[in-house]
Inverse folding.
């Protein structure tokens, strides 16, 4: 080992650093198969148990597409909420992440790497849902009979991931505010009501009026409506876009506030 | 072991000037000024809560100063570019549990322009056979070795180690010391904190003693010792230990489990003369130089009682501009 001297080659680029951080984070997660499997198969299981037994839904292409879109978003939301909420809380308690902050790297590469990792695992969770939707429901008929164009599939995947943004911010907010044990509990308590009242498990037309009205104010309902409309070729309500944007900005501001607050508190 | 001599002409790699850091109502650092020059090996010493870790976290860019200025390679340590030539270890033993050893080294190496090849680094630290193992599966000693190896992967010009050998057995500690001396021999600059004074004595040429957020002494190991000139005068006696407290130069009186009484004194010769002149009942008299730990305890005690009123002890010229 020698100390470097003379002219040095330039510092690694941001792209190199993002790649290194993403690789490390993906590998770390993959090595805990239980975590990967549970988040990956959960939406697929929900599809299998709640949707497939309903003949009326499965035989109707549009109803099938709706169900697939709802559960896809369910998968994205769970991947974002859990990856950020619990991941950030655990990181804060871990001296290794303090060590990483002493490396010659800013906050950006690891933040982007975390988003990419969350999106990757969210995307992985979409695959079994899409496979089940293709093989066990009438959903593909909507594309084969020419009702819908094929480009809606890749577009929908992008839209689903983007609709996850408010939950990403919510996850950050929880992660910066709570210890990891509290974060696990809070994330679970927040996740299921949000998913249910957002119409991800039951379509909203089955809701009683009061729940439907309440639901329209939730980010999960707005995200669900946009996801479904893009996938089924419906009309996106401006109100859904507005609701989702307001929630994303609001939760983003809270996440930022919690992050700032954390900088002061973690070093007591 | 020889420690390369440093002269004031060597460039300053890291500096703190009049740095103040508060946490809530508590002042962790109270106007500290310190220069670390290229090639130096500096040991940071002080009781828990003295401000050592706070100072290090400022130098590593983990926190912001409330007042004053911290510079690392001429930049703010908060600027990632300032940390390109710095290597650190975390204080606690923490490794990414599920990453393999080689993956962990590759990951940290990716942050530097010219890293030591992973295989070479692991071989140097006796971790070659562990390369494929997950970090969580390493023993505590192996994890510590890995962390120190990571501090050196970027060929840093300066390394900051916060208690590098805490919890290591003697063999593991000696092999780490060997690596760190090797690093220093090739021109590396070292800043370490340690609970083990032996470690500071073994690795550092210069000792900086911090207490209650201020530097209370700054000099070579011998200077610090010489400055307080503490001795331990121990003997057997039939008299109660309290009867020796009135002797001149006495800093403290202790009674061992086996009944030996030890006077810690600022002037061993004077103490022995007093014992003889007063014809006190003492047998099997022994006189030892005090350890660095005792010197350090005396320093912090003096500091707390305010008897060091002429400012920090500057055992050699380290005055700030």
């Amino acid at each position: 080992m020698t100390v470097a001297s003379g002219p040095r080659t330039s510092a690694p680029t941001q792209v190199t650093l993002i790649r290194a951080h993403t690789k490390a984070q993906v590998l770390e997660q993959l090595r805990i198969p239980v975590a990967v499997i549970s988040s990956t198969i959960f939406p697929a299981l929900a599809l299998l148990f709640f949707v497939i037994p309903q003949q009326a839904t499965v035989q109707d292409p549009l109803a099938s597409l709706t169900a697939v879109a709802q559960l896809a978003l369910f998968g994205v939301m769970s991947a974002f909420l859990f990856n950020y909420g619990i991941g950030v809380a655990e990181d804060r308690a871990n001296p290794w992440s303090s060590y990483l902050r002493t490396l010659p790297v800013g906050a950006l590469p690891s933040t982007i790497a975390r988003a990419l990792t969350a999106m990757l695992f969210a995307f992985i969770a979409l695959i079994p849902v899409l496979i089940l939707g293709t093989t066990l429901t009438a959903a593909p008929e909507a594309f084969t009979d020419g009702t819908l164009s094929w480009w809606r599939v890749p577009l929908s995947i992008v839209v689903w991931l983007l609709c996850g943004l408010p939950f990403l911010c919510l996850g950050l907010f929880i992660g910066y505010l709570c210890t990891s044990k509290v974060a696990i509990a809070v994330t679970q308590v927040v996740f299921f009501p949000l998913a249910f009242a957002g119409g991800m498990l039951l379509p909203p037309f089955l809701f009683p009026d009061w729940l439907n009205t309440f639901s329209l104010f939730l980010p999960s309902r707005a995200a669900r409506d946009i996801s479904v409309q893009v996938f089924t070729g419906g009309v996106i309500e401006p109100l859904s876009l507005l609701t989702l944007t307001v929630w994303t900005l609001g939760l983003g501001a809270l996440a930022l506030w919690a992050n700032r607050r954390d900088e002061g508190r973690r070093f007591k | 072991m020889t420690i390369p001599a440093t002269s004031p002409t060597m460039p300053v790699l890291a500096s703190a000037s009049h740095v103040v850091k508060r946490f809530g109502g508590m002042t962790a650092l109270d106007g500290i000024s310190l220069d670390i020059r290229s090639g130096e090996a500096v040991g940071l010493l002080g009781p828990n809560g003295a401000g050592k870790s706070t100072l290090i976290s400022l130098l590593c860019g983990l926190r912001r100063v409330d007042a004053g200025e911290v510079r690392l390679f001429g930049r703010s340590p908060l600027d990632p570019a300032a940390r390109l030539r710095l290597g650190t270890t975390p204080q606690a033993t923490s490794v990414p549990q599920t990453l393999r050893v080689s993956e962990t080294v590759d990951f940290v190496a990716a942050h530097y322009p010219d890293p030591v090849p992973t295989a070479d680094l692991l071989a140097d630290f006796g971790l070659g056979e562990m390369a494929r193992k997950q970090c969580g599966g390493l023993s505590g000693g192996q994890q510590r070795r890995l962390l120190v190896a990571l501090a050196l992967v970027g060929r840093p010009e300066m390394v900051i180690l916060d208690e590098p050998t805490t919890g290591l057995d003697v063999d593991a500690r000696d092999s780490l010391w060997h690596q760190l001396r090797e690093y220093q021999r090739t021109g590396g600059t070292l800043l370490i904190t340690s609970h083990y004074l032996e470690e500071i004595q073994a690795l550092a040429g210069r000792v900086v003693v911090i207490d209650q957020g201020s530097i209370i002494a700054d000099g070579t190991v011998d200077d610090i010792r010489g400055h307080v000139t503490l001795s331990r005068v121990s003997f057997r006696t039939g008299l109660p230990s309290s009867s020796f407290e009135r002797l001149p130069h006495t800093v403290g009186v202790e009674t061992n489990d086996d009944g030996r009484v030890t006077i810690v004194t600022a002037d061993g010769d004077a103490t022995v003369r007093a014992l003889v002149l007063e014809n006190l009942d003492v047998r099997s008299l022994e006189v030892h130089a005090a350890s660095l730990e005792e010197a350090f305890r005396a320093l912090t005690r003096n500091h707390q009682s305010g008897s060091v009123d002429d400012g920090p002890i500057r055992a050699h010229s380290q005055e700030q501009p």
Notes: The longest helix of chain B spans residues 170-185.
